[in-house]
Design brief:
Blueprint: H1 4-12, E1 22-23, H2 25-29, E2 40-41, H3 47-72, H4 96-104, E3 124-131, E4 140-151, H5 166-178, H6 193-206, E5 210-214, H7 217-222, H8 225-228, E6 234-238, H9 243-251, E7 255-259, H10 264-277, E8 289-294, H11 306-316, E9 319-323, H12 338-341, E10 351-355, E11 365-369, H13 371-380, H14 382-385, H15 392-406, H16 413-435, E12 441-442, E13 447-453, H17 455-467, E14 470-471, E15 473-475, E16 485-490, H18 497-514
Parallel strand pairs: 4-14, 6-7, 6-8, 8-9, 9-10
Antiparallel strand pairs: 1-2, 2-12, 3-4, 5-11, 10-11, 13-16, 15-16
Helix pairs in contact: 3-4, 5-15, 6-15, 10-11, 15-16, 16-18, 17-18
Length: about 550
């Protein structure tokens, strides 16, 4: 990396970088911390698009008030839940704006979500067709099944969501032998040898002293964070952290301060202020300072700047809680997550958390770290003490897939899937950028957000893609900023070259139809790349 020219840009004139799509500022300023280029793309929203998007929401809001007026006078039927007249003096059950947004904006494009499927959510799936006769308030099954829809929405990163193969066979055998449920907690009658085997294997996979598994990924965060910090502690949370991290922080009764997404200057300022000023009013030192961050951010496709975070953590004697829900299995040469991706020591991360719902295609979550930390959680975590034990078929799915990734099954299938995912990710992102779409996130992230901006185009994009047998996920306000609605593609190792090319052709076609190619930074098309079942290679020319 060429450091010197960008050091001045980072420290002296940040406005210079505002319109630049490829932001390598932090990598260049802290080049000694990185062993590889760190390239992320966040192209600024074009001004005209921002204005038109605000106008779209404004028009929808005006018509929403008009329709509410018509509903008030019984001109139009109201399907939504509302407060009774006799309860008007009670504490309201429904938030006014949320209710207004749901019935007047979300309902118009509700058909783009909640579509039932009737097959394994692998590289393709079968979709149950639904229709609505009351403007998306209710849906009816038509009896038709849409076959072989290319799946660009599921978190099936390594392709283990399948009903054939080693994982499915092993899970089926365990189901016959042990049944589905355990009907007890780990501390009572629900601790089986398979659970302990999984924890030992997970600790070995992560490179930590000990690990503990939980039956629900969301509860792994929301129930364990309150066990680690409490009153008198400070939590520094990334502004784009997942809802489970936010809930866990709130339940802990700790003081919470939020820093800008992946912004090390913002994080360091909060750390410095916390050390200098201490707790409010008393100015006593904080009992603990815990940094909450994710490995891959599922809405932005960005990757944590882990080398810089660890450097700050050590400098200010803070603790780091790393959520690797999307990065475990999907990053690193051996699928060991963002720590391996940057070539760092797992011991530098105090609490390593992740889920089994993405790359392992199962359910539940884990926490890894020092043995004394895990022993403490076994007796203090609500999720460990009160929750039912993880189902044995789910445990077997995780065990089999993890052994495959680690090569303990005697094959190289796991490594080939990791390599395939990395190749598919780079190929898919590069092709979208060449077409002229605005793509967010890191070049190595299998989460690929494509910006749509306008609410009408959010619904139209999902419908047009489904007409062409491509299943996608759209994300809009309030899950994203109001002017940053997007389609979120999740790339899988199960996708073949033909599937990706078919999907890319359809995306380009729909992009032309809806005028979605907004990028002002044109990427020159690369030379044709020969492709086989394992590699993408550039011609020597």
């Amino acid at each position: 990396l060429v450091r010197d020219p960008l050091v001045t840009m980072c420290n002296g004139n940040e406005s210079v970088l505002m319109g630049i799509a490829l932001q390598v500022c932090h990598a260049a300023c802290n080049g000694e911390l990185y062993s590889r280029p760190f390239i992320e793309s966040f192209e600024e929203t074009p001004m005209l698009l921002a204005v038109l998007t605000y106008m779209s929401y404004g028009i929808l809001t005006i018509f929403g008030y008009l329709r509410d007026f018509m509903r008030e006078w019984k001109i139009e039927k109201c399907h939504t839940a509302r407060e009774r007249e006799e309860q008007k003096d009670f504490v309201p059950l429904y938030q006014d704006f949320e209710n207004f947004y749901t019935r007047n904006i979300y309902m118009r494009i509700r058909d783009s979500w909640n579509r039932p499927i009737c097959s394994v959510p692998g590289a393709t799936f079968d979709l149950v067709e639904c229709s609505s006769n009351d403007y998306n308030w209710t849906f009816e099954y038509t009896g038709r099944v849409v076959k072989d829809v290319i799946n660009l929405g599921s978190y099936n990163y390594l392709g283990f969501a399948e009903n054939t193969g080693a994982c499915a066979t092993a899970a089926g055998e365990v189901t016959v032998k042990f049944g589905v449920g355990v009907a007890s907690t780990r501390q009572e009658m629900g601790n089986l040898d398979r659970h302990e085997e999984l924890e030992k294997l997970a600790a070995s996979f992560l490179g930590v002293e000990s690990a503990m598994v939980f039956g629900m990924g969301f509860a792994t965060n929301s129930m364990n964070i309150p066990a680690l910090v409490g009153k008198g502690c400070l939590i520094l949370s990334d502004e784009l952290n997942h809802a489970s991290l936010v809930l866990g922080a709130r339940l802990s009764s700790s003081t919470i301060r939020v820093f800008k997404h992946n912004n090390m200057q913002s994080l360091e300022k909060l750390l410095r202020d916390a050390i200098v000023h201490g707790q409010p009013r008393t100015h006593r030192p904080w009992k603990k300072i815990l940094i909450l961050m994710e490995g891959i951010y599922s809405m932005e496709g960005s990757i944590i700047r882990l080398p810089e975070v660890i450097a700050l953590k050590k400098k200010y004697k803070a603790y780091l809680y790393l959520d690797e829900a999307h990065s475990i299995g999907a990053l690193g040469l051996n699928g060991r997550g963002v720590v391996e991706y940057f070539g760092l020591d797992p011991k530098d991360v105090d609490v390593m958390m992740g889920t089994f719902t993405k790359s392992f295609s199962a359910a539940g979550g884990y926490v890894g770290g020092r043995k004394d930390l895990i022993d403490y959680l076994r007796t203090h975590s609500h999720s460990a003490i009160y929750a039912t034990t993880m189902s044995l078929p789910v445990v077997e799915q995780i065990l089999t897939s993890m052994k495959c990734i680690m090569g303990k099954d005697g094959t190289t299938i796991g490594l080939s899937r990791i390599q395939r995912l990395a190749e598919n990710t780079v190929y898919f992102r590069r092709r979208l950028q060449e077409m002229g779409f605005i793509i967010y996130g890191n070049n190595d992230s299998p989460v690929v957000p494509m910006m749509l901006y306008m609410p009408a185009k959010l619904g139209a994009f999902g419908r047009e893609m489904l007409k062409r047998n491509i299943g996608v996920v759209g994300v809009g306000f309030p899950a994203t900023p109001i002017i940053e609605s997007r389609a979120r593609f999740c790339i899988s190792a199960a996708h073949t070259k033909e599937m990706l090319d078919r999907a890319l052709d359809v995306i380009s076609e729909v992009g032309d139809l809806l005028h979605l190619k907004y990028s002002r930074h044109k990427v020159l098309p690369s030379l044709d790349r020969p492709f086989d079942e394992t590699t993408y290679e550039e011609n020597e020319e």
